[in-house]
Amino acid sequence: MKHIRNFSIIAHIDHGKSTLADRFIQFCGGLEAREMSEQVLDSMDIEKERGITIKAQTAALTYKARDGQVYNLNLIDTPGHVDFSYEVSRSLAACEGALLVVDASQGVEAQTVANCYTAIEQGVEVVAVLNKIDLPAAEPERVIQEIEDIVGIEATDAVRASAKNGIGIEDILEEVVRRVPAPVGNPDGPLKALIIDSWFDNYVGVIMLVRVVDGELRPKDKILFMSTKAQHLCEQVGVFTPKSIQRDVLRAGEVGFVIAGIKELASAKVGDTVTLVKPAAEEPLPGFKEVKSQVFAGLYPVESHDFEALRESLEKLQLNDASLHFEPEVSQALGFGFRCGFLGLLHLEIVQERLEREFDMDLITTAPTVVYEVLMKDGTVVEVENPSKLPDPGKVEEIREPIITSTILVPQDYVGAVMTLCNQKRGAQRNMQYMGRQVMLTYDLPMAEVVMDFFDKLKSVSRGYASLDYDFKEFRADDLVKLDVLVNGERVDALSLIVHRASSVYRGRELVSKMRELIPRQMFDIAIQAAIGAHIIARETVKAMRKDVLAKCYGGDITRKKKLLEKQKAGKKRMKQVGNVEIPQEAFLAILQVSDK
Ligand SMILES: Nc1nc2c(ncn2[C@@H]2O[C@H](COP(=O)(O)OP(=O)(O)OP(=O)(O)O)[C@@H](O)[C@H]2O)c(=O)[nH]1
Questions:
Q1: pLDDT of residue 46
Q2: CA angle 308, 314, 317 (to 5 degrees)
Q3: Maximum pairwise Cα distance, the chain
Q4: Which of 97, 239, 494, 500 is most buried, with most CB under 10 Å away?
Q5: Does ligand 1 come within 6 angstroms of the Cβ of 13?
Q6: Averaged over 12-18, what is the pLDDT?
Q7: How far is CA 368 from CA 21, 290, 529, 596, in A?
């Protein structure tokens, strides 16, 4: 174990994590030069060559250090986005060290800070690296100061590197050997292995990436999952270099893959502990938790006969995404569809895009919502993940909404604008700390406000400089009401939402006026109303189409007219007939476009 180093790379998106990882692999000879495609670890072709699929950027590297010794360096991937912070914490729990890679022309970003704090909390040694030193805009001194101020680690001697030009690569590996501690663990104890990641492969079933903490694991061993008590027969173990290489054994301190004929991803939960049936470990490794969906939305096929196809597509996606949840749901307006649970908005977008691109589904997506806890007058508590299912207000004692604690890092110039935004979103400031040229703001915010459009707004008020990280804090009661939308007098369940009473009238007005713009004229007048209970708070009308509209606008110019009609035809696919009115997809998401007071 003395010669093992387990480490991961913490970097903000685009700061050069993948490029650097590729350099390490190249330097350590994991792949021949001809096998290095643009970015090896993401490449599908290479996956084919390896035989089994590799999801994470994980590589067991052999490095001959300047001290003449040969080291086994395990690079463990960490996902980059806020939605996946639990996975990040599990990857870090499997490491003794982490490289904090910072773009020397950009500086430190909130996401990286959050991950660094997670690493430091877990007792992981954080080693700073300045990347992109080749850029003329690089300001290493300023960025070093920033790292020291914000992250609070020594960075004066940080390696100055260029992953792109291959500068400083060996120096970084030397730092890993020198500063990252070797793993400790009991090689003779009962097996304890942490599942860092798991994914589904069509040929061999579930592949787990594990860090063996104690003991050892061999093919033919009977393994036991400590959270579910499920037992399986270990079929194969090995490492990724990043090619998959079978091994006879994985020992304490090592990182590698395990294949055990498991068919369902849900059986191999990230963070769970794998032990042997005999002898079994007594206690699991700390830190396991079930990940819960944070954001919900309804997904409906535009054509109702595509319902089964949508189910199949969702099932296929779920094979490789245990955090995607879905249940059939019926909407009066949209027909049969699914209520889906996601880790966050990005996750929702990824799923939606994959369904559309890879599975060729035409979908109507309802506005994302969070889950509410409703305390009923009879003392029971129900969870509501679809606003239209909110119980009758007469029976409700209180509605509680999820509150998150968010950490926002922003340059001083934009602090005022960000604070204004947080206040508009019903935020409560918890802390404000000056760190060099940046300010770290901590706010408690209702998650419902954040899932709407907070991230985009934050970026726009800070010209892209602010970055955000968040954690769930608690459910808290507030004065929340259900806002319904009626189209020609009919309540459209898929358009209901839960809002704060103080902003309900304003939101209702904005929403119907936005919808008036988005719903195309039809042969008759369309009334769009917003209501709270029986009380109508806003109304707009989409006037009936006059027969000669087309002729007037495009009189004579037949090609333009054709184009317009074609466009309408293409647009049609994403319309949903509700009663006798056609409503386009955008109208279902209109609430996302309603600006704040
Ligand atoms: N000039 C310069 N560009 C670099 C360097 N390292 C990476 N890049 C470029 O920066 C961009 C982002 O690099 P990636 O390695 O994909 O960054 P990443 O952090 O892995 O990004 P994600 O995969 O999106 O999280 C690419 O266009 C790289 O070519 C460097 O040292 N110098």
A1: 42
A2: 145
A3: 86
A4: 494
A5: yes
A6: 87
A7: 35, 22, 21, 17
Assign 199 to helix, strand or coil. Answer: strand
Mean pLDDT for the stretch of residues 99-105:
95
Q: Are 301 and 363 in contact (CB under 8 A)?
A: yes
The pLDDT of 146-150, averaged and rounded, is 87
List the strands of the sheet with 295-301, edge to edge.
Answer: 325-331, 335-342, 295-301, 363-365
Amino acid at 216: E
- 162 is written with which tokens? 């260029």
The pick from 14, 24, 43 for probing ligand 1's pocket by mutation, whose C-beta has the most ligand atoms within 8 angstroms, reads 14
Rounded-to-integer distance, Cα 46 and Cα 36, Å: 9
Distance 4 CA to ligand 1 centre (A): 27
What is the tens place of the pLDDT at every residue in 234-263? 999 999 887 788 999 999 999 999 999 998
Residue owning tokens 């369940």: 493
d(CA 338, CA 94): 36
Token pair, residue 388, equals 């239209």
What is the number of residues in the chain? 597
C-alpha separations of 167 from 60, 162, 164 in Å: 22, 5, 8
d(CA 51, CA 140): 42
Q: Which of the listed residues 12, 18, 131, 160 should we mutate to test ligand 1's pocket, taking the one with most ligand atoms within 8 A of CB?
A: 18
Sheet holding 273-276, edge to edge: 231-233, 222-225, 273-276, 192-201, 205-214, 255-259, 236-240, 244-247
* DSSP E strand stretches across 394-479: 396-411, 428-435, 438-446, 467-478
* pLDDT tens digit sequence for 468-491: 888 889 999 999 999 999 999 888
Q: What is the pLDDT of residues 351-365, one digit of tens each?
A: 888 898 888 888 888
Using the predicted structure, report yes or no on whether residue 346 has a pLDDT greater than 80: no
Q: How far apart are CA 218 and CA 289, in angstroms?
A: 27
Whether this model's pTM surpasses 0.95 = no
Cα-based torsion angle of the residue sequence 338, 272, 291, 316 in order, rounded to the nearest 10 degrees: -20
Cα distance between the two ends of the chain: 60
CB-based contact 579:487 (threshold 8 Å): yes
Q: Is residue 18 annotated as involved in ligand binding?
A: yes
In terms of DSSP bridges, do strands 438-446 and 428-435 run parallel, antiparallel, or are they unpaired? antiparallel
pLDDT, tens digit, 9 for 90 and up, residues 501-530: 998 999 899 999 988 988 888 888 999 999
Residue whose CA is at the smallest distance from ligand 1 atom 27: 14
Q: How many angstroms separate the alpha carbon of residue 248 from the centre of ligand 1? A: 36
Parallel/antiparallel/unpaired status of strands 4-11 and 70-76: parallel
